[in-house]
Amino acid sequence: MPRSKKRNTKILPVNSNEVRHVVGPVNDDTVSAILKSEPTREELELVTSYVRGEGSEVDRLGHPLTAKVARLYDILTADALYVDDEQ
Fold first, then answer.
1. Most exposed of 12, 20, 46, 49 (fewest Cβ within 10 Å)?
2. Which residue from 13, 11, 20 is spatially nearest to 76, judged by alpha carbons?
3. Per-residue pLDDT tens for 18-31?
4. Burial letters 15-54, b for 16+ CB under 10 A, else e
5. 73 φ/ψ angles, rounded to the nearest 5 degrees
6. pLDDT single digits (tens) 18-75
7. Would you call 80 helix, strand, or coil by DSSP?
8. Measured on CA atoms in the order 41, 45, 50, 56, is the torsion positive or negative?
């Protein structure tokens, strides 16, 4: 009977290239702060959609940011890329 292959279920944190791919051309300090949080790609995509105001406001209100994603939100909203967008 053949053994089933176990998949690696551990989700690895993203690297700097992936950060910039998902969140955009943020500055190096922002990338560094994000990497220190060791986010997954899913967490980055979620926080980026919140920062950009994508999706319905009702949906965002029904799913408040918590823990790491809330910290990532604070980091991104302090970056000039997103500060300028909000003005």
1. 12
2. 20
3. 999 999 999 999 99
4. eeebbbebbbebeeebbebbeebebeeebbebbbebbeee
5. -60, -45
6. 999 999 999 999 999 999 999 999 889 988 988 888 765 556 566 667 788 889 999 9
7. helix
8. negative
Q: Which residue do the tokens 């799913």 mark?
A: 63
Structural tokens at position 17 = 């290239």
pLDDT number for residue 54: 75
CB within 8 Å of 2: residues ≥ 6 apart: none
DSSP for 7-73, written as a single string: P--PPPPP-HHHHHHHH-S--HHHHHHHHHT---HHHHHHHHHHHHT-S-HHHHHHS---HHHHHHH
pLDDT of residue 76: 93
